[in-house]
Structure formats: C-alpha cells, structure tokens
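USER: I would love a firmer grasp of how sequence relates to backbone shape in proteins. This is the protein in question:
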Amino acid sequence: MAIEEIASDGTNATFKLTEDGEKESIVEFSCLDSNLERSCKKYESAGILCVHALKVLNATNIFHIPAQYVLKRFTICAKDSVAEDEHGQKVAGQMQQPMSLLLKKNFGCHL
C-alpha cells in the first residue's frame, strides 16, 4: 500500500493511500487532536480503524491508537457495566458473562 501526503496546512494533513495501484482511499488527519476522517467509513460501521488510518498514524509517527478510537468493548473494563443491545435496552443472562466463559461453553476452548 502506497501512501502520499497530498495536502497539509501545519495542523491538518490529507493523505492518499493506493492499494495495488488501483483502489484509492483518502484520510484526513488532525495533528491537534489526532482525529482521523476516512473515506471508507469502516470505523463508523464496524467500530475498528481501517488499515488506511493505521498507515497514516504510522506515517505521522503515532504508534498508539488515539484514545477516542478505542471502544470500551475492546478494553479490560468492558465487562464492568451492564450490556445493552443496539436499542439501548439492557441485556440479561448469558450476554453478560465474560467472553472466556462463553468460549468455554460454546466452543470448548481452553483459556
């Protein structure tokens, strides 16, 4: 994947990333708050940063994912609160068990 800085004003930079010489993605990066705007919108739909955003962070010498992009469900504190469904309703029962227990019960995993 090739990365090219196509615009910069000192606090904001725009990068063009090209995959296999064909598919292009645009990422805008703000140095002030480490905010990333991505053309693929993967974070907005899946909750994880795309490879394009990670490449831009790497190119700008940021080697830790900015806190605003680490969702609670990916932290060690994820099970400290009550789980909610997509409508904000509290979910009871098996959904609140730690993932390790669910894996053991459902898939026979040994953790």
